[in-house]
């Protein structure tokens, strides 16, 4: 979510449309959720078992890069449990009191979804430990010497936390989730399924090769696949194309500066900054973020995971390094290196 903000691949005016479309395209049941076999199977077992036992499900933590389906899964969990869903987020819970207010208003069995849970404040986090484990919170009333703590029983609820950065979660919090699902990037075949479904909802006529072309540029991410599909729709509409084939899709996406490997402007500027300004690195993350004019978190959660996966960038103890493949992707010649200085 947060990482989505500064990302302006397609301009901020598309953000409202993006939200609305995202809601419309979200699968509503676990069986409609494409890919993520492992997580889906594990989660379905957790939910099935709690349904059989007639209890609320264990708390669930979902981690993974932006746009892979964490929010979608949280909604599916509530739907599968026929439970009400309450949505909040780490940045919105800055005081323990904010969290206490949310928790004390939950009804029995409700699913509380906390997005970006790694961004909650420390005091709120500590309150959450007790709530997760004992369904109880201590509410502090008053200030200073006169402050008293009133224990408050909570109805059983299921916490679903989502994070793009599981590594930032303190151990005690991570340990209190009964189940952690790590979402992986999607294969091109899976993205084609996502696109097929979305194209029907958008009433588009797309040939198989058209789906393949869009999928191959979608960085393993359903959100990006859906977004590119909408841009291809615009292009086809304006150019009077009735069936989107491979070349239509390619032409449209070239225009939006999404290259054949799915790299967009931000990805390329990260690689360019590394290669052209720092001879390929190593460069610290924060320096890199300043150079490309983005938040550190955006570079780290949005651009890097894909660049690393594509073998274009390496994270080393001394900083980020461009691989030879990155130089070649930018049309540059990789520098000669001493064999032992490779990637720091
Ligand atoms: N497995 C899937 N099958 C079909 N569509 C999916 C799947 N996963 C995600 N999507 C689509 O991708 C879009 C983004 O998914 P979602 O909002 O759940 O991502 P997220 O992981 O919560 O991202 P963020 O970290 O930015 O909050 C949704 O509109 C949804 O329709
Ligand atoms: Mg989300």
UniProtKB/TrEMBL annotation:
Organism: Nesterenkonia lutea
UniProt catalytic activity: ATP + H2O = ADP + phosphate + H(+)
Residue segments, region Head domain (RuvB-H): 260-344
Residues holding DNA: 315, 320
The organism's place on the tree of life at top rank: Bacteria
Domain AAA+ ATPase: 56-189
Family: Belongs to the RuvB family.
Main function: The RuvA-RuvB-RuvC complex processes Holliday junction (HJ) DNA during genetic recombination and DNA repair, while the RuvA-RuvB complex plays an important role in the rescue of blocked DNA replication forks via replication fork reversal (RFR). RuvA specifically binds to HJ cruciform DNA, conferring on it an open structure. The RuvB hexamer acts as an ATP-dependent pump, pulling dsDNA into and through the RuvAB complex. RuvB forms 2 homohexamers on either side of HJ DNA bound by 1 or 2 RuvA tetramers; 4 subunits per hexamer contact DNA at a time.
Subunit structure: Homohexamer. Forms an RuvA(8)-RuvB(12)-Holliday junction (HJ) complex. HJ DNA is sandwiched between 2 RuvA tetramers; dsDNA enters through RuvA and exits via RuvB. An RuvB hexamer assembles on each DNA strand where it exits the tetramer. Each RuvB hexamer is contacted by two RuvA subunits (via domain III) on 2 adjacent RuvB subunits; this complex drives branch migration. In the full resolvosome a probable DNA-RuvA(4)-RuvB(12)-RuvC(2) complex forms which resolves the HJ.
Domain comment quoted from the record: Has 3 domains, the large (RuvB-L) and small ATPase (RuvB-S) domains and the C-terminal head (RuvB-H) domain. The head domain binds DNA, while the ATPase domains jointly bind ATP, ADP or are empty depending on the state of the subunit in the translocation cycle. During a single DNA translocation step the structure of each domain remains the same, but their relative positions change.
Region (Small ATPAse domain (RuvB-S)): 187-257
Enzyme class: hydrolase
Binding-site list for Mg(2+): 71
Subcellular location: Cytoplasm
Protein name in UniProt: Holliday junction branch migration complex subunit RuvB
Keywords: ATP-binding, Cytoplasm, DNA damage, DNA recombination, DNA repair, DNA-binding, Helicase, Hydrolase, Nucleotide-binding
NCBIfam families assigned: PRK00080.1, ruvB
Residues bound to ATP: 25-26, 67, 70-72, 133-135, 176, 186, 223
InterPro entries: AAA+_ATPase, AAA_lid_4, DNA_helicase_Holl-junc_RuvB, P-loop_NTPase, RuvB-like_N, RuvB_wg_C, WH-like_DNA-bd_sf, WH_DNA-bd_sf
